Amino acid sequence: MKRRIRIQGFLIFLFFTLSILLSKSLFPHWEKEAPDEFLDAVGIGTVLFGFLFRISARGYKAEKSWDGKKLITDGPYGLMRHPMYFGTFLIGLGIIFVLFNWWVFPLFFFVFLLIYIPQIHREEQKLQQQFDDEYMIYCKKTPKYFPRVSIFFKLDFRDYLPLKWLWIKKELISLTVVISVMIAIEIWEDVRLFGYAERTKELLESLLIIIPYFAILLLLINEANFKENN
């Protein structure tokens, strides 16, 4: 575990170092506001959606199987077998939408696969040894990496992505730092390109995306509390 964390930490440090050194090539320089605003909205929404998956999956697993002796097949794990990694992927993808040029995505995708595919393979081998036929049945009915598109037209997110405030607190610092840094960099870039009048506009646009997100979180928290109390 410690070795894996050190490797991931080194790769993150390397990525940010290269981002600074190669900023002229990595960061987009829009000549028009429309593409920038569209990708900002898509990117911030993708990051927030990724954190929603991570928070729900991490908290649900910790609560339902804190000792790792129970196979979790419902909640976020009813959508796919590795929802935390899916959430991490969405967070990285959203950051690229907001801050980087399009060609960074293949690089991110390659590094992501390099880190997580071997990790997922090891975890699945361990789960199969531990739960045997039960895990095989779960694998047959549940996608490995991405949820089925068709399921989004049928499911109730309050059942598949439950939330509790305690779960959010564990990811709140990461969520706050990522969103704050993204918005700060984007405001700086817009001010540099379009003038100081963009500061307030960019902040308001970001809030229009973030406020509904937290409203959804509150809805999911209240629903989870209601079901728990009944």
Descriptive overview:
- This protein is mainly α.
- The chain has one domain.
- The protein is 77% helix and 0% strand.
- It is built from nine helices and no strands.
- It has helices spanning 2-21, 23-26, 33-64, 83-99, 104-131, 133-141, 157-160, 165-194, 198-229.
- Helix 3 packs antiparallel against helix 4 (83-99).
- The longest helix has 32 residues, at 33-64.
- The mean pLDDT is 77.
Count, helices: 9
Proportion of residues in helical segments: over 70%
Query: What distance separates the N and C termini?
Result: 39 Å
**What number of structural domains do the residues give?**
1
Helix-strand makeup class: mainly alpha
Order of helices and strands: HHHHHHHHH
Number of strands: 0
Radius of gyration: 19 Å
Largest sheet: none
Strand content: under 5%
Architecture blueprint of SSEs:
Layout: H1 2-21, H2 23-26, H3 33-64, H4 83-99, H5 104-131, H6 133-141, H7 157-160, H8 165-194, H9 198-229
Helix pairs in contact: 3-4, 3-8, 3-9, 4-5, 5-6, 8-9
Name the features.
230 residues, mainly alpha, 9 helices, globular
Summarize the structure.
With 230 residues, the chain is mainly α. The protein is built from nine helices and no strands.
